[in-house]
Amino acid sequence: MNIDVVISAQHIKPEKFKDRIVVVIDVLRATSVMVTALNNGCDKIIPVKEIEEAIDIASKDKNKYLLGGERGGIKIDKFDFSNSPLDYIEDIVKGKSLIMTTTNGTRAIKNSEEAERIFIGALINGRVVAEKLAKLNKDVTFVNAGTDGEFSMDDFITSGYIINCLRDIMKNHCTLTDIAKTSEYVYINNPSIISFVKDALHYKRMKDLRYNEDLRYCLSKDLINIVPEYKDGEIKIY
């Protein structure tokens, strides 16, 4: 198994994803939202790049669809929810379809469509993602959504955690690129993830917006035991 990491959505080269599995990571907070919503009974998630597209889809059946997402960390006007995973409780999302658009995460997913399969990863489901990848035993690229097209420490250390889990399960029968080795090295030397990312730009932005509970939740390991997959324009538990 060959393992690689792409450091932001801006650095995606779709032609390099052919015959590979991709794991998209936007730990603060899009992929954490997706994992949480589906775990709480959401039927499916439709990720889109643009606000107008999300509104257009939702307008077809207002009883079926919920709108969630952000721009710059702030809830989009006329949307049902922001990008806080704590908003997506079972009583609200169960049996519903969620349409999401975010600054970084949904763009990273849509830009990875050349991959053979696309899974949704976060710290809250990190170990089970590694277990899934080990069973498939195919080359994998971790796509970090990043922040505004740039490298993001929180996504990078999340990749490192999942890589570390994967190498443990595979008994080190993996070949890592330099960037993948660096990602794992960062995690191994900073197992207290919050202490590593607390000075990161994205973390500080979330603190400034008073998303303290989101930060605690999203930067916790292995709370959820599902691996959502993006296929045919939808994210579901297949």
UniProtKB/TrEMBL annotation:
Any single Pfam family the record assigns to this protein = 2-ph_phosp
Instruction: Please name the taxonomic classification of the source.
Output: Bacteria, Bacillati, Bacillota, Clostridia, Eubacteriales
Origin: domain of life: Bacteria
Cofactor(s) listed in the protein's UniProt record: Mg(2+)
Q: Can the keyword Iron-sulfur be found in this entry's annotation? A: no
Q: What are the recorded GO MF terms, alphabetically?
A: 2-phosphosulfolactate phosphatase activity; magnesium ion binding; sulfopyruvate decarboxylase activity
Q: Which Gene3D superfamilies match?
A: ComB-like
> So what family is this one in?
Belongs to the ComB family.
Q: Which InterPro entries match?
A: ComB-like (IPR005238), ComB-like_sf (IPR036702)
**Which reactions fall under this protein's catalytic activity?**
(2R)-O-phospho-3-sulfolactate + H2O = (2R)-3-sulfolactate + phosphate
Q: Which UniProt keywords apply?
A: Hydrolase, Magnesium
Q: Known EC number(s)?
A: 3.1.3.71
Protein name in UniProt: Probable 2-phosphosulfolactate phosphatase
